[in-house]
């Protein structure tokens, strides 16, 4: 067992095996991802899984995992919001695994319960919330946090979960005339930009509102929600007798890092009596940087917020955070389980986090974040954010300067420098991009070629809309130790793969 006074001694030789195998696997991989097609990786995994046994199984399987990983610590692995975790955060997470605290009751996690509460107060203050008023919880990530925000929004308006209307204080009534009571029969609607994360639709479905309750709001070419379009959609809801339950503003869209106009969203939410949820799963990291934090101006007005420290925060997954501005709006999640948080325990001063989470058993994911914050400080983490931002700006400029690469939004008003740490671009064939369908096919296949050769892991997405010519490659730069020269080398590999595909 890993706990107790003897636990560390039991772990030590095993951890040494793991560390050795991690290094061996990375050396055998020799790049961002193991070369080969999926069938080759599957065969190698099946072979080791079948033959590994006994005390050497840990080392063999770890070497296999390391060899067969897409490693975000390699500068050429830059497809997704998939960060290289900080070694100190991973070491902290080892302590959590060894002790296995569970956050659903005080008697399973005395210190970890207190630490999660303190960390959330610090993060609430970082957002600009009043920590004495706010509440929150660690989550599995933006998907769960978005579900929670929309659940509380639904319950505030519909009183669904507990069967009672939740007390509304200081919240303006809807513009529909007659307020929430009169609107109880109206169809609930969620307004989110066309570039919002797909988990918003999924949450709406899970909450019984239906995917089609999410009304897409138009975005500009950088995928930023248009405030005028949001106002028009809200007005249309009211005219149709629908109830705008929530506005979801994205602070850092997954593809371009675009930040919706948060202050205007907050004003419109107040005007129409809607809940404002800000999905800052990606952009929340900007709060760590003095230079970038002003981009999130207005986030402090949100009713709830999603943050993911396993993105722009260098934590091993999962490190999601959900926060609400006013703790009383959390009411509909409250639960009493006599074996976890009996009232007499709470009265005697034993706090419980049970009623803050959708989950019961819950890892102490706050611990690694707390250790990281204390080790590097906000300033230290802010420097990492700034380094990734600068890398993205340099990378985007290198794309713009390359004759065979086209930066998305190049030459448009408002500039084409990345907002955060990601940008979209594409390879342009010899004769130009006029044949959109061929350009799409080339870009899609050059990315698979890079994966197959084990040379680079580059993102692939599509611009919103219909028809050919929308496929784009994406770099999401989350490795603060990567250099501009390494990003330029990665772009060179993209061009070489494009040329090879054209000749194929
Ligand atoms: C990543 C992301 C999510 C989903 O978060 P998970 O942690 O993967 O569950 C939601 N919204 C945005 C904007 C994201 O970038």
Automatic annotation (TrEMBL):
Cofactor(s), names only, from the UniProt record: pyridoxal 5'-phosphate
Keywords carried by this UniProt record: Aminotransferase, Decarboxylase, Lyase, Pyridoxal phosphate, Transferase
Lyase found in the keyword field: yes
UniProt entry tagged with the keyword Transferase: yes
Lineage: Bacteria, Bacillati, Actinomycetota, Actinomycetes, Kitasatosporales
Family in the record: Belongs to the group II decarboxylase family.
An MF annotation (GO) of this entry: aromatic-L-amino-acid decarboxylase activity
UniProt xrefs under SUPFAM superfamilies: PLP-dependent transferases
GO CC, any one term: cytoplasm
Protein species of origin: Streptomyces niveus (Streptomyces spheroides)
InterPro entries in alphabetical order: PyrdxlP-dep_de-COase, PyrdxlP-dep_Trfase, PyrdxlP-dep_Trfase_major, PyrdxlP-dep_Trfase_small
Location of N6-(pyridoxal phosphate)lysine modifications: 311
Name assigned to this protein: Aspartate aminotransferase family protein
GO biological process, one term: carboxylic acid metabolic process
């Amino acid at each position: 067992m890993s706990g107790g006074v003897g636990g560390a001694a039991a772990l030590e030789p095993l951890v040494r095996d793991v560390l050795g195998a991690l290094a061996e696997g990375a050396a055998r991989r020799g790049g961002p991802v193991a070369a080969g097609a999926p069938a080759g990786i599957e065969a190698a995994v099946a072979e080791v899984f079948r033959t590994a046994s006994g005390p050497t199984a840990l080392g063999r399987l770890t070497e296999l995992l390391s060899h067969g990983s897409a490693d975000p610590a390699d500068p050429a692995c830059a497809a997704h919001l998939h960060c290289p975790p900080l070694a100190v955060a991973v070491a902290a997470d080892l302590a959590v695994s060894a002790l296995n605290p569970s956050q659903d009751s005080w008697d399973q996690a005395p210190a970890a319960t207190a630490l999660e509460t303190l960390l959330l107060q610090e993060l609430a203050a970082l957002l600009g919330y009043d920590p004495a008023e706010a509440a929150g919880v660690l989550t599995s990530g933006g998907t769960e946090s978005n579900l929670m925000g929309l659940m509380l929004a639904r319950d505030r308006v519909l009183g669904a979960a507990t069967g009672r209307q939740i007390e509304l204080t200081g919240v303006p009534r809807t513009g529909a005339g007659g307020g929430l009571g009169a609107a109880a029969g109206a169809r609930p609607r969620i307004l989110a930009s066309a570039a919002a994360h797909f988990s918003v639709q999924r949450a709406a479905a899970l909450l019984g509102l239906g995917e089609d309750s999410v009304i897409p709001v138009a975005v500009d070419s950088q995928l930023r929600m248009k405030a005028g379009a949001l106002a028009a959609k809200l007005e249309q809801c009211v005219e149709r007798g629908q109830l705008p339950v929530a506005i979801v503003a994205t602070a850092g869209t997954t593809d371009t890092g675009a930040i919706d106009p948060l202050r205007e969203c907050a004003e419109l939410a107040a005007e129409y009596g809607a809940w404002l949820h800000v999905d800052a799963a990606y952009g929340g990291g900007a709060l760590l940087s003095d230079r970038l934090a002003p981009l999130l101006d207005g986030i402090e007005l949100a009713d709830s917020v999603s943050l993911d420290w396993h993105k722009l925060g260098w934590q091993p997954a999962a490190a999601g955070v959900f926060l609400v501005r006013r703790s009383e709006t959390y009411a509909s999640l409250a639960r009493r389980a006599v074996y976890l948080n009996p009232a007499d325990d709470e009265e005697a001063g034993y706090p419980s986090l049970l009623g803050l989470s959708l989950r019961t058993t819950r890892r102490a994911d706050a611990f690694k974040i707390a250790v990281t914050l204390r080790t590097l400080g906000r300033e230290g983490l802010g420097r990492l954010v700034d380094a990734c931002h600068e890398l993205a700006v340099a990378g985007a400029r290198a794309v713009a300067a390359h004759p065979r690469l086209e930066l998305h939004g190049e030459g448009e008003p408002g500039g084409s420098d990345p907002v955060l740490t990601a940008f979209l671009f594409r390879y342009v064939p010899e004769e130009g991009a006029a044949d959109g369908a061929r350009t799409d096919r080339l870009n899609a296949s050059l990315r698979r070629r890079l994966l197959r050769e084990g040379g680079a892991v580059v993102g692939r997405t599509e611009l919103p809309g219909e028809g050919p010519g929308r496929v784009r490659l994406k770099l999401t730069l989350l490795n603060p130790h990567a250099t501009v020269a390494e990003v330029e080398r990665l772009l060179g590999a993209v061009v070489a793969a494009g040329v090879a595909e054209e000749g194929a």
